[in-house]
Structure formats: structure tokens, C-alpha cells
Amino acid sequence: MTSFVGRERELARVRRLLSTGRVVTLTGPGGVGKTRLARRAAAQAHRAFPDGVWLVQLAQLRDRDLLAVEVATTLGIEDGGSEPVENLVRHLQDKTLLIVLDNCEHLVDSVAALLGTLLAAAPTVRVLATSRQTLGVEGEYLFEVPALSLPTRSGSARTERVGVTCEAVELFLERAAAVLADRPEDEAFQRCAEELCRRLDGIPLAIELAAARLRAYPVEEILARIGRALDVLTTGPRSAPERHRTLKTTIGWSFDLCSLDERLMWARLSVFAGGFDLAAAESVCSDDQLPQSVVFDLLAGLVDKSILQRKNGSARFSLLETVREYGLEHLVALGEEKELRRWHAGYFAALADRGGRGFSEREIEWFQQIGLNHANFRLAMQACLSELGEPRVALRIASRLRMYWASPSRILEGCQWLRKALANSPQPSEERAEALWVCAYLELLMFDTQSAARSMAECRELAGMLSLDRVVAALPLLLVHENFIAGDATAALTHAREAVVCGRAVGEPGITGEALFYVAAMAFASGDAEAEKLADEALTFFEGEKAQPWRANVLWINGLVNCRRGEPDTAAACFADAFAVFRHIGHGLGAAVCLDGLAWASMLSEELPRAARLLGMAHPIWQSGPSRMMPHQFSELVARRTVEATVRADLGDERFEEEFWSGASRTLEDAMDEITRAPGPKPASTVAESGEDSLALLTRRERKVAELLAKGMSNADIAADLVLSRRTVESHVQNILNKLGFHSRTQVASWISRLAPGG
């Protein structure tokens, strides 16, 4: 009765599955469009089934014993006095037909038993089923029906609705036109339609019910109230099945199919936002009533029933927003909401603690966990500041996420959470002192020096009053930032050295290591002759601590040092290594400064088009967040502006712009491909023939490393001899092998020996 919108990819997938599988089951939550998709796919496939395509609707069937009768009746098979299953077998054994079994979830066991018998006896019969729970039939092919595609945040419904990229908005506009007698085209309506479809997760039923509400309310009013979607979306066509007339009834149909334990688990899982993993579910949702040992199976059961969604290739689960809202209503009715909120906040506070202080070999994993659970951290902090009345826990969480906040796209949010938590917890405490320190740190990164000065002053006073030695020892780190912002790198270096001493005095490797990074960075910025040595010392420290994110920061400094020294290959290896870490932890700022550094190295290697592309790759990152952050200014002052001017002058404006914007259009994954691409090595035979001329391929430091290799020294011995980190030596060795076209250290030693006098 209404138009079919989108689903081209899904239809193609179902057709392919029907061509290979005897049983194809479309799964997914209520209202996602399983029935509509199955009917459409069956209609398109009818030519392949000369004996017909038959739709058996099971939603109203409650007696399991009548299943075979219902199928037989639909297929027009007369009783004949025999058992219904025998009748079906006899009728179907020589038929080529497709049976569509719609809404099997409440009869799963009976459907599975019947199909097992029928398919064994009728080899050319195929079945297309829809079910919120998998059937478990041998040879079953599963297809999880996704929600309708949504517009991107940057796009608009008007430009995207022509293809399948915005099916949800297209459906809403189609149904709106039917209700309003004309298809709305104005910008404001389009924007509201976009946001409405996002809030409804692209679920077709929810979108259709929302469009039906346009008879009584303007779209802006519906959008404003959609946070209570289950109550707002209560009007459906009279011709629709009863379970589809309201969204709540649709989801309640799934709820009724769950066991008591599954219902309780569903309710408890509703306290999560944006997804969760097994460990979080076990910790937050288990107690004496639901022991931890049963959580694994309960999650699997909820996935099978299409209540939970699991990302392909991931161990994370999520609930559609409307499904979560239904579970939350049940949790409130049970009187458990506040207790579950407390367990949820406690779990994520502990997760923040695990990587928020000191160093760990699992830092990258921790950063990734923080990014995946961003919405959960927001929810936990909000709960602590409101219904739980635990602002000090919110202070702790916000403070421990310091390095996560220190990125252009997140720094403002980090400041907002800290300020809100500080306002709600004015009493003197260690948590408040640490939060003031972190707040000042973020304010300095944003060049908000006045706010930072107030935060630092209160932090210093509070730390002294409470004798918080660790906080006092960390204060010089803030002075490093303050000095650098003022343009005094020499004073910043002095305070960085002071911070190293303070960190060691209180036995805090976190403070010591961060200070060593700043010592190296400020030595480089101030032109100190010891910058190379200090950068190596910092790298050695972090490699010993196995602290990957901070090691990446120091690798960046080592790269800059090597660029200034005229060793672009070594510099590029440092930048590439650091970039890989920053990309893994989602630290856009770190990725950007590494791309800028790689552009500098490429310029020094006379790879000018590549340098322009790399500058272009960093450009969108700088545009995405606050531009006045200290590392950004650092990169601008030391490399980016000079590199861009030089490369532009050598390439010419037209070629530079072409390469630059080519880079700007690429993703970080594309950038990784560009970074790992290296010029092909010079053939070994050419190197051997070129004799001493080939020494020109190596930098001064690489020639020294090659000479020590020829003496049979290990990387560790070379590092000690040249006062370098082992990682830097490894980079030098790899560069030597690449440039000379060799594959082993022995070849390098032999080549050096031949070049030596008398060799």
C-alpha cells in the first residue's frame, strides 16, 4: 500500500543467499523491516520457483501443534485424514517453491523441527524466514537486517537522499508527503527530519510512526519530544498488525519472548550508553540474582533474539535507543535504576584509574577503551553529579582522562566536565586539587592563560594545605606550558629540568617522564646544543617504562632533531613510528604533528610532491579543533610554515595546490599507506659496483653506524657507543639496508670492509 524505500544492497544480499542456501533467516529487532524486506525479496525471486512463492504468517499463531496445519492450509493442501506433516512431505517432495515464514520467534523450536523434516524430504524447496531469534536449523544462513542508512553529520538530507546513503530520511519524507498531501522541501524541515531519523536509529517502524504524528504536530514538536519515543510514537494505521501499531507494543512483543533472567539482563544493560563489552556487562549487571557466570549465556541469548546487536569482528554489544528506553522503563519499575547507575559509575571510574596515573604496557589498549566508551564516561559523570550525588567520583574520572581530553576534538568537553565537577565539589580534597591541575593543563593548551592562572593558584594553595607532595611536584610542568606560551623556551627548559628533579624526589615516574619529554622539546625549541642527547635520554626512559603514547611524543621530538640535523630518513622513521601510535589511540593532534614532520623530512629528501600531500593530510585535523594549542603552535613555528613556503616555491602554486588537496581528501588509513611507502632500494650489484661513491647515499651518522656494524657490534653496543637509544640505532640500521639494497648486517660489514684501505 506504500512505496518501498531503499534496501537495494540488502535485497541483493538476500537474493545471493537464497541462491546458495536452503534456509535463509532475516533477523533483527522489532520494526527494523524484516517482513517488508522478505516480501520484496520473495517477489523478486518468484521466477526461480515454478511452483510458487508462499507467505505463511505466524504472528497470530500461538498453538505450536498447529504450525504444520497453518503451513498446509496456506499452501492449499487438503487434510485427507493424514497427519499434517505427512501431508506436507507428500505434497512438497517434488515441488520447487519458496516458503516465506514470517515472524517465527515465538515458535522457534517448532519451526526448526518442521523445517528439519520438510527440507530433508523436499530437496528443491527453499525457506525464507523472518525471526527476532535464529532458528538453529542445520544449514541456516543468517542475515541481520540493518536499520535504514542515516545521513552523515556533515551532509544534508537534501543532497543525500538521491541514493541509498540516506534511506531513513527518504522514508520519512515519503510518508510525510502522504500525511501532509505534499512532500516538504524547505531546509528547516529537512534538518529536523535528519535529526529525527538519527534519534530513532533509522528504524523503519519508528520513522513511519513519527511521520504519522505529522497529522497533529509540526516536525519540530515531534523532535523536541522524541526523547520519550515509546510514549510519543503510539499511532499506527488500523490495517497494521496490532504489534506494530505502537513502538512500545512492538518491542514488548520481544520482551515477552525473553526468559525472566533475559528480561532482567535487558533492563540492567539499559544503563549503558553507546555500547559495552562482556567485561563491563559482567561487572555492572551481575549480583546474587544474576551471577557473573550466567552473563555470557544471557548476552548470547539476547543477541539471538535481536535485542542486542554485536558489531562484526568486535566483542562489543549495543542496544538500539528505543530498545534501551524500553529496558530502562522496566529497570525503573523494578526500583533498581539508582543502584545500577552507581555500579556503572564505579566500573568506569575504575577503568579511568587503570591508565590515568603512571605508565602501563597496555596504555594503547586503555586509550582505545576510553574512546569506545566515551558515551559511558559522559553518562557516569552526569550520574555522579546529579542523582548519585558523588561529585568527587566525577572529579576523579575527568582528571584521569587528561591525556584523552588533550586533543582538538575533545579538549573543550574535557574542560567543561572538569569545571562542572569542580563547581559541584567545592570542599578541599585531593580529588579537587588534581582536577584543578588538569583543568589548568587543558586551559593552557587552549591558551586561556587567565583561567589557567586562577586554576594553578588554587591548586598550589590547596596542595600545600593538604600536603599533597605529588601535586606540588607536578606544578612545574604547568609552568613549562606557561613559559612556552609566553614565547620563552629557555625559561620553559629551566622549569622542565626542575620538574624532572621534583618527579624523582617524590618517586613519580609519570611526572619524571613527562618532564623529560618537555626537557627535550624545550631544548629543541630553544636551540640548545644538547637537544639530540636529551631527546635520546627521554626515548630511553620511555622505552624502559614501555609507555607507548609518551614514547610517541618523544619519537616526534627525535624526528624534529634529526630533520634539523639533516638526516631525513632517520627522522621519517621516528615520525612514522609515532604516527602509528597516535592513529591507534585516536589522537588527532599527535597524528597531525607527525604528518607535518614527515612533510619536513620529505622536503629534505627532495620528495616535494609527497611533502605537499603530507601537509594536506594534516590540514583537516588542524581545521577540526582549536587551532591555538601549544603543540600546534610548536609545529607551526618550527616546521609547517617554512616547509609549506619552500615546497610551494619549488613546485609552483598550481602543482602544490593539486598535491595538497589530494592529501587533504585522504583518510588516516590512506596516510598510513603514504607513510609506509618508501622508494625502492638501490640494487645490491649497483652498490657493489659504485664503490666509495655509494657512501654518499648515507648520512654522517649512518656511515658511523655502518662502520660499527662492520666491527661486529650489536645494536645495544652501538647505542652505548654513540649515546643513542636502541630504537634510534635500529632505525639507522634499517635505513642503511634500504638505501644499499642489502638484506643483512653481514652484507653491510662486507661492503664496508671492501671500501676500507687495503680491503
General form = globular
As a percent range, the share of strand residues is: under 5%
Q: What is the domain tally?
A: 6
Tell me about the largest β-sheet.
5 strands, parallel
Strand order of the largest sheet: 2-3-4-1-5
Using only C-alpha atoms, the radius of gyration works out to 32 Å
Describe this structure in words.
The protein is mainly α and 759 residues long. The chain has six domains: 137 residues, P-loop containing nucleotide triphosphate hydrolases (Rossmann fold, 3-Layer(aba) Sandwich), CATH 3.40.50.300; 91 residues; 78 residues, Arc Repressor Mutant, subunit A, CATH 1.10.10; 164 residues; 129 residues, Serine Threonine Protein Phosphatase 5, Tetratricopeptide repeat (Alpha Horseshoe), CATH 1.25.40; 72 residues, Arc Repressor Mutant, subunit A (Orthogonal Bundle), CATH 1.10.10.10. Helices cover 65% and strands 4% of the residues. The chain has 40 helices and eight strands. Strands 2-3-4-1-5 form a five-stranded parallel sheet, sandwiched between helices. Strand 7 and strand 8 form a beta hairpin. Helix 31 runs antiparallel to helix 32. It is globular and about 95 Å long. About 3% of the residues have low confidence.
